[in-house]
Prior knowledge:
Helix 1 (27-37) packs across helix 2 (41-48). This protein is α+β, with helices and mostly antiparallel strands. The longest helix has 13 residues, at 108-120. It has one domain (10-120). It has helices at residues 27-37, 41-48, 96-100, 108-120, and strands at 49-56, 59-66, 68-70, 76-78.
Amino acid sequence: MKRKKIKYDCLKCTGYCCSYDRIEVSEKDIKRLAKYFGMAEQDVKSRYTKTYKLKENNEITLEQILRHKKDHIFTSVCKFLDSDSRQCTIYEARPKVCRQYPNTTRCGYYEFLKFERKQQDDKSYYPTF
């Protein structure tokens, strides 16, 4: 089976996907992070995640999500995004949802970013919200 060519470059992006409010982590992700940091799973949960209450159809579901930190481009981002390089500091241990993103050959934000940089004639330009 032939793989489709990826048409985005995360190394040229500002980490928009890292600004999503909810970056869900599974128990398997917690185990991976614990091994990566050499910590107990419970310590990883308390230090790097928080519980989010998702309300849908009168039902409440609890999700573990990554904590955020303040950011100079976006309001807040995943605590593991390096604010200067705009790269993931736990790339090898990143959660499954990050490994799968954007789950297509194109990234909508990257397309937008390329367009804006071309319009501004500035390869390092980033639009602010």
